[in-house]
Amino acid sequence: MIPMFIFQLMGLVLVMLPWWIRNIVTLGSFILTAEGSGNPFLAGTYPYFQNYMQDVAAEIRGNNDLQLAYGIERLINGLKTDFWLYFKWYTIGKTAYIFHEPYLCRMLMNSEIPSKIIHFSILIPGVLGSIIHAAKSLKSFWFYLFGLAILGLQLMFVPDPRFAYLILFFIIVGAAQLICYISGFIKRKILR
């Protein structure tokens, strides 16, 4: 029997293959994910975007390795000098920023309010349902832990509402579980 990891790896390769082929044909080289000029790790080391990127020296701009090293230095220094600010930013702050509104909710005229209503009507029950579902079943716990691991990886970098899309799958499953739990509870009360 082939381990599940092999199937997951095949899925990743299948999804990424068109991107890799495009990069080879268009850019003339294999690029695994991206070669951005800005470093998202460094950009994420500015709590609540205070003085955002103002202290980045001109000589490290455009050099990803130097920016990464400077980002690590900023993070370590920040944790030493203002631990609670950095701790809050890397946990609650970035999570709140990722989920505070749906990505592109203002793309169409008059779409912001309906987008936010839909977003929070899934997000709030989804989080509650995820907690209840994870507490009831070990398999469910591991499922949601995978979603939290994805969120944990995202919290290392600059936060963006579009990152919520990777985790919304887990939240939607949690919302569905909450609906099933509530409907089952109501049925049991009616049948008594």
What descriptors fit this protein?
192 residues; mainly alpha; 7 helices
Structure, described:
By secondary structure, this protein is mainly α. Helices cover 69% and strands 0% of the residues. It has 7 helices and no strands. The chain is globular. The mean pLDDT is 89.
How large is the count of helical segments? 7
Distance between the termini: 46 Å
Structure summary, number of beta strands: 0
Class derived from helix and strand content: mainly alpha
Poorly predicted runs of 5 or more residues: none
Task: Indicate how many domains the architecture comprises.
Answer: 2
- Percent of residues in helices: 55-70%
Q: How much is the radius of gyration in Å?
A: 21 Å
Query: What overall form do the CA principal axes indicate?
Result: globular
The overall pLDDT, averaged over residues, is 89
What's the SSE pattern? HHHHHHH
Quaternary structure classification: single chain
Largest sheet: none
β-sheet strand percentage: under 5%
Brief rundown of the structure:
This protein has 192 residues and is an all-alpha fold. It has helices at 4-27, 40-43, 64-81, 83-99, 112-136, 138-154, 164-191.
